[in-house]
Protein 1
Amino acid sequence: MSLNLTHPPPPTAFPKSTTAHRRLFSVPATFPQLHRRNPPLISASATNGDQSRFLPDQSAIPRSRFAVKSVAAAEGSGSSIPDSNPKPAVNQTLKLATVFRLWYFHNVIFNIYNKKSLNVFPYPWFLATFQLFTGCIWMLANWSINRRFPKISKDPALFHTVGHISACVSFSKVAVSFTHVIKSAEPVFSVIFSSFLDEIYPLKVWLSILPIVFGCSLAAVTEVSFNLGGLSGAMISNFGFVLRNIYSKKSLQNFKEIDGLNLYGLISLVSFVYLLPVAILVEGSQWVGGYKNAIVAVGGRSMEFYGMVLCSGIFYHLYNQSSYQALDDISPLTFSVGNTMKRVVVIVATVLFFRNPVNPLNALGSGIAILGTFFCTLR
């Protein structure tokens, strides 16, 4: 028997079934390309020959079974893969809840010190100006440290000035509870003025604000002390603050680089410039004599008087700062609703602090107001 000593055929003569062997041993040559941060996307139609099969592309990147199904579902629906992580939404809700708590707490403290100051020093124009001045110092220090001085429209500052001085005048003439009863109608003004500015609300929104107003009014019915000046001041304050909220929200939407905190700082600064000369003109000549009477009223303890006035200024700025941080994420109507519920808290707190008589209707009115707020948020 003879042996066949002929050489095996050259590689080009290998049958097609051995192509997999050549592919197996050619992978290491292109393996480093797979470690690049952004491998080139090369399709077979863009190259010649079989080498294109060994270049990395998106389809060659291994995926888990879950990822493949998710991508397929997203491509089939024509939308991106939804984020299944609920933590950002939860964190935003917790942040907003914290801001609301601080808003309510600071407002209660402000109303107490503001009324105590007005009881011994009944000059609301001075007090309103000083409270804006305190906010200016606070924000100027903040901007100096951060080296950031934002710019914004002056419209919110004008309406804030009108609303603030009107409220202070009302506080000086009537009980705190009565002023807040009148100001509980703020959602009504919000709906009306927003409607004039091309925002349409359905009928259920108009109906839902009625129990809010009625409930807050009922909660403070035992504290009502009518005075025409106090009534007019509270109504004008509603007008000013609602328009301030609407234009502030527009400013936050038009100027994406500014947040609620810096927006209120600018409003305080411009409002102070508006109010100072008018305050001096209206009652500036009475401040020296009023100061002497105030020191006598507190028993000669001047530091006590200074502390009351200073605390009214600090907490006025803090509660407005918190409210503007809330305004970052809510609509003007929702802001007015939250402001109305804040009034229930303020009314109850001031009744307890100043030991005013309490009527069971207070609790009933608070419940009706809360229910009305619930229906208003379902709009």
Note: The first helix runs from residue 19 to 30.
Protein 2
Amino acid sequence: MSLLTDLINLNLSDCTNKIIAEYIWIGGSGMDLRSKARTLSGPVADPSKLPKWNYDGSSTGQAPGEDSEVILYPQAIFRDPFRRGNNILVMCDAYTPGGEPIPTNKRCNAAKIFSHPDVAAEEAWYGIEQEYTLLQKDVKWPIGWPLGGYPGPQGPYYCGVGVDKAYGRDIVDSHYKACLYAGINISGINGEVMPGQWEFQVGPSVGISAGDELWVARYILERITEIAGVVLSFDPKPIQGDWNGAGAHTNYSTKSMRNDGGYEVIKKAIEKLGLRHKEHIAAYGEGNERRLTGRHETADINTFLWGVANRGASIRVGRDTEKAGKGYFEDRRPASNMDPYVVTSMIAETTILWKP
């Protein structure tokens, strides 16, 4: 194993200018991440300078066998925390050979919304709180839980410390540092209410970069859990019963909301979100009805509520925002398995572009 480790940790810059680029894309389910690597002649910092690539879409559920070629367009570059050196991770989106975005490419439409002059002028900021659950590999039961049984009730686990409260901290801290190394704007981590469940936060990030950063942060976490022999779940309600679900609360502000008088802008934006509640819920992740029950710090899926410091609301406004008269709000409805390209762009579209 020591020889394998030595080879994995080889520093290529000692002997060549060539680098390895790991191209990442989203598969046919809309949640499965795929990647493959290629050699480049030297370091690249601009995604537009990277070559397009292709893959077999019939093997990812994104193209028929008789016309299976799907083209990858490089969109964002991050440092590779696994290979290190000048090697890179490349977030891509997928197109037909004719240049049309394939149906599972949600980034393309999001980029159009964020490039709209009215949206660009508002400099939309996002902070996404990504919850997830770590499962034992062979039984798909949360790590730290007794096989076929349950731990003690919720209470001591949220931000808990100790071998009987925090399960998987080595994975969580490895992910935190790897994201910082990669250049992702990860802003924190914490243990969640259900044991074996954790959260990381990405942001504040501007516009389309919020989606790019969250997807690559998910990819890095998938790779780390692969190494650790643990299954990563983004299911919004992995364990039925009196256990918290997993969400992706999305914090949001525009320039107008951050400026003096912004609280009135926030209230108008929330009113518009309420008018499109059903459309947003439909786009906020599969299985969310199992999580948004009105219990466990959620609002019922069929009800739109907002309030100050209310974690049982659809939209929560912080006390600091209310006091300052400007700031941001938190959309608590998105599920942990939501597509950040869809959620971030839809919030911007509804609050900035949509006319009731």
Note: The two ends are 62 Å apart (CA to CA).
